Amino acid sequence: MSNERHGGNREDSDLSGMQKVMFVIVLGALVGCGPDRETTTPLSGPITEAVYASGIIKSRDQYQAFPAVSGIVAEVHVQAGDSVRAGDALFTIDDRATSLGTQRAELALELLRQNASVASPVLEQLRLAVEQARTRLANDSLQFARQKALWEKQIGSRAELDSRELAYSSSRNAWLTAQKAYIETRTRLRNELRLAENELALRRAAEGDHTVRSLIDGRVYDVLIERGELANPQRALATVGRADAFLMDLQVDEYDIVRVHQGQEVLITMDSYKGRVLEGTVSRVDPLMNERSRTFTVEAVFKQSPPVLYPNLTVEANIVLARKERALTIPAAYLVDDRYVLVGQDERREVHLGLRDLQRVEVLSGIDSTTVILHP
Known about the structure:
It contains four helices and 20 strands. By secondary structure, the protein is an alpha+beta fold. The chain has three domains: 144 residues, Elongation Factor Tu (Ef-tu), domain 3 (Beta Barrel), CATH 2.40.30.170; 59 residues, CATH 2.40.50.100; 114 residues. The protein has a six-stranded antiparallel β-barrel. Strands 3-10-8-5 form a four-stranded antiparallel β-sheet, with no helix packed on it. Strands 7-6-4-9 form a four-stranded antiparallel β-sheet.
């Protein structure tokens, strides 16, 4: 009886040990899938894949006005907010030195016109010298011909013939020299006249350069210099742009730029218009990357511009790459290594993905709408 009791106790002890093991296993499973473990199931709904970009508002045709010359700002004709027409004066640079130069150029031109004219004293004197040399040549030529005819008749001496020939030769050289001097002087004066005309034209153009004018019909958005300050061609004087048309300058990371092209839809948010999502379109993609920021500039235009805009307002934009109205999606945070999800007892199951936004990702295959997914 005693042995039977002992045998019975051993069986009870073994059973109790197995129960403890099963309890630990069940407890572990409950802990692994307990209420603290987040789970989800795929949802069907819309999803939009987009490229994020940030940027600023710019006025269309916006530019900075620079002077063509250096000098003191004599007059500031506009202030920020003024409307201007193309050709309106924005600034006047002190041009007293240029005006004196123009006056000197005008005087020099007048003198050269007189000297280069047909009746100028300089050319008249040279022309007179040519006529005198020609008259002397004609006389010496005639005397030489007569003396030569006498010599052929054996009249007169050899010395007289040589003397007439020498006089003729000298007169001919003097005539040629006088002609050359006249032609060269006339050509030089005409060339100097053309140069003086060009110089005066440049001087007068430089006087025009001392007035900085608007290139477009638009608005002055900023005045960057005051009267009395020194202006130079490297210093911007004002920012001018269109008053009725604006665009966006967006910066897109080099990682995303290959997926961006002209004509894509853009969804825009602005601090100035909180709670509104504005629509736009990509109008241009600049092909050169900014090496410092590693970004590309993408220009976008509004489909319907807000009522009030100003240059340099900040914008955030999503350039739409693709969208689906009905897609099976899960939170992106539930992905493991960007290709697996956890199901059951932390089993890794591969899924094939489609579109994605900042929070959710489309699942094309691997799970369905009833699959319970564990948070990693």
